[in-house]
Amino acid sequence: MTTSVADLMQRSLLEVFNERDPDRRAATVAEIYADDIVWHEADRVIHGRKALDLRAAELQAESPGWVFRPAGPVSVNDDLGHLGFHFGPPDQPPVVTGFDVARCTDGVIVELYTFITEVRQPS
What's the first-to-final CA gap in the chain, in angstroms? Predict the structure, then answer.
């Protein structure tokens, strides 16, 4: 079964970065990312599935109870996807807004770029 770029990006946001159960998160990471995934954040570059999984857990620990929400549909151009996101406490305005750009090959994400566009003070 071929997974679409849009599906991969939605799953990345919702089933990896929102998943609090480490076993379920690790299983999804193994399914949707290349073994040698490279994730570019503004202040670091993460290499490999294990490091990506650890960083996702770290983000959750830094902001307990916060959730990621899509900020619209995924835009796709060939093997590239773009997905805006909101991050913050549920049912409140987002504290962080940004977007991910992913390059996908053979049904997995091989590169992920995260851009933060705004950070507000929590309510």
Answer: 43
